[in-house]
Backbone:
């Protein structure tokens, strides 16, 4: 009876170890894939870490560090979920958790960053919540390693093939998303966003206001723009309410003010409410842009032609040119300045193009992925 009880107890503990291993692996996979969807944003977060700890000399390698971390998390997570080389994988995960538990404690106490970036833009949690999460996962990783450390370490080609395949797929996903932009965006500037309704534009607020008046004669409610003078007749109309889509915008959206400042004023309002198409060349890091990137921008400007280039604005962070004009690829373009955080949210690449038609973001491409847009422009010009 005792032996049977021990057998049952051992089986139950084994099942719990398997469950914890799979759960821990799933967390690592989610974390790695979330970063892989936005490798450029992950690199920005790594830069923030390096700068906060005075390691500016490594900032140039932030992209490689970010991709390496996301690939490692994805591969280790898949190894745990699939039960491949459990002893080695669980040991590395335990070391990983020990390091990041200590790091997140320092970050939580010191608070140099607004969030850890652990799950990319998919899920943002506070620094203390991040530390609490790691404080739970660390002992879980210890339990998983203790259960797996005595498992046979026999080398098997099948396991090696799976591990290599995991790494190749993870690297490919990062490279694809780096050049093609994140396939899933959680920022307010995703394709399909209505700038007039879904995005904060402080200079646009007055134009988005609607006044609600009651017709005294019929009792019917009517809505008027501020520019409409019909409601001035107080003998006919009685004020009821003021409506604005900005009142209902979530706090996350309100963080990113779509303001593009030029010496002539804010172009954000003009782009938001203009009819037709505007091409915003969003340049986060123009000096880091590759030759292929610059060729893509030049190809777009060539395809737009003289008339089309009037509908292009070159947007950067920092200071604007004194005359509001900048030379790009031999062409003179309007130059606007946007808040750096907002610019990064709008374009998750060193440089790219945001296409706005009638106030709606209809397309968005990195500078190395403009062939389709250029092809459409050239076809339309034929």
Residues:
């Amino acid at each position: 009876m005792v032996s049977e009880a021990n057998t049952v107890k051992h089986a139950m503990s084994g099942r719990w170890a398997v469950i914890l291993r799979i759960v821990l692996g799933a967390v690592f996979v989610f974390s790695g894939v979330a970063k892989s969807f936005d490798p450029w944003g992950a690199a920005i977060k790594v830069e923030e870490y390096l700068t906060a700890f005075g390691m500016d000399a490594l900032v140039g390698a932030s992209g490689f560090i970010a991709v390496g971390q996301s690939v490692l998390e994805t591969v280790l997570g898949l190894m745990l979920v699939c039960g491949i080389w459990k002893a080695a994988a669980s040991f590395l995960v335990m070391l990983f958790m020990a390091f990041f538990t200590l790091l997140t404690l320092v970050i939580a106490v010191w608070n140099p960053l607004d969030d850890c970036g652990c799950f990319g833009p998919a899920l943002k949690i506070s620094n203390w919540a991040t530390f609490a999460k790691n404080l739970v996962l660390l002992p879980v990783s210890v339990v998983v390693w203790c259960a797996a450390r005595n498992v046979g370490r026999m080398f098997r080609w099948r396991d090696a093939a799976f591990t290599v395949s995991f790494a190749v797929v993870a690297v490919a996903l990062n490279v694809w998303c780096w050049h093609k932009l994140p396939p899933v965006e959680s920022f307010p500037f995703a394709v399909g966003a209505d700038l007039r309704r879904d995005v904060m534009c402080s200079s646009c607020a007055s134009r988005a206001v609607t006044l609600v008046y009651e017709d005294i004669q019929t009792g019917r409610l009517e809505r008027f723009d501020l520019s409409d003078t019909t409601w001035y007749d107080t003998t006919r109309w009685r004020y009821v309410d003021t409506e604005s889509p900005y009142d209902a915008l979530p706090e996350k959206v309100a963080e990113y003010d779509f303001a593009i400042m030029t010496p002539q004023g804010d172009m954000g309002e003009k782009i938001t409410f203009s009819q037709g198409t505007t091409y915003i060349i969003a340049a986060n890091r123009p000096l880091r842009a590759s030759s292929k990137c610059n060729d893509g921008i030049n190809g777009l400007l060539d395809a737009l032609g003289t008339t089309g280039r009037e509908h292009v604005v070159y947007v950067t962070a920092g200071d604007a040119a004194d005359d509001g004009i900048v030379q790009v690829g031999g062409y003179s373009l309007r130059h606007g300045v946007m808040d750096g955080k907002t610019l990064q949210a709008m374009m998750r690449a060193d440089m790219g193009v945001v296409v706005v038609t009638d106030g709606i973001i209809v397309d968005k491409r990195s500078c190395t992925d403009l062939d389709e847009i250029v092809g459409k422009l050239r076809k339309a010009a034929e």
Notes: The chain has three domains: 2-180, 210-243, 252-381.
